[in-house]
Amino acid sequence: MKAFNPQDFHILIVDGTSDNDNLQPTIARLAETGYGISFVANEQKALEAIKQLQPDLILLNLTKQGANVLEIGKTLHAHSEYARIPKLFLTANREQEALLETLDSGMVDSLSQASNELEVLACIRTHLKLKRNWEQLQKAYSELEKLVNTDPLTGVANRRALIAFGEREFNRAKRYAHPFSVLAIDIDRFKQINDTYGHDIGDRVLIAMSRSITQYLRQVDCFGRFGGEEFLVFLPETEELQAAKVAERIRKRIAKISLQVAEQTVTITVSIGIATYQPGDGTLDAIIKRADRSLYSAKEQGRNRVGISVPVVLSSCSCQSKSELRSIS
């Protein structure tokens, strides 16, 4: 963990007193220690300065604990961008009820205006350390979450994250009768690429394809590696016809990819299977399996094409269905 360095922090002092002699020793010690310091004279200017400077800590030295002081705390506490900024309040009112009200407003601590500069500096240092530790924990958590949910080779969602997203969208589609489509994508003759050019080139193919598809999709979509050379795309709020257009554009986009290997050019094609949520689908797995059947039908029909699974009722008195496959070339 990085050593604590005052020069890494900026403090905003809101000093609304007519006589700030009690604060001068603290200001001098803060500057001497290396903290960056900015000043505003009242509560109104404080909000503007906070938005502009985004300080690491706010020290309020005001004549009295008025409604405006508490409003600053509440406003900042409600704002996600500023909620984690420690706010210290110097006050002459040390009554218990007033102190509790201060803490409830979002202030992290309250000190007497009679406190000497060493007490104030110690309090500032403590809360800055707590803030920094929280930020480092948040960063570590984000990095860990990314590792847990990301395929290490391609950088797209792994199977775990993919299925978690798919389950949420499947349940939403089932509950609200919203459209939801799945694309199953498989690289054609990928084993042949590995056998001919080596696994390093195979990895480059996977990476190039993943980047190409990622750039094309919407933010609400989820694209990930299902296993090996097979990938899935979950398309919320997407009917079959829209999904077919997306799949066909992806197919054409991938067909334009080429990798230079020594004196040879490696080209890529994919086969894509589509399945759309139907009211009778009991699980996400049912849709994925239908998309897989469409995918392998597309491969059987010559690869580098899109296959669509269409439920067809066998008879008016039967509850069973089968899948009739058609392809888009």
UniProtKB/TrEMBL annotation:
Family annotation (PROSITE patterns): GGDEF, RESPONSE_REGULATORY
Response regulatory domain span: 10-128
An example Gene Ontology CC term for this record: plasma membrane
Annotated Gene3D superfamilies: 3.30.70.270, 3.40.50.2300
GO MF term set: diguanylate cyclase activity
GO biological process, one term: negative regulation of bacterial-type flagellum-dependent cell motility
Entry superkingdom: Bacteria
Occurrences of domain GGDEF (ranges): 178-311
UniProt-listed NCBIfam families: GGDEF
Protein name: Diguanylate cyclase response regulator
Source organism per UniProt: Hydrococcus rivularis NIES-593
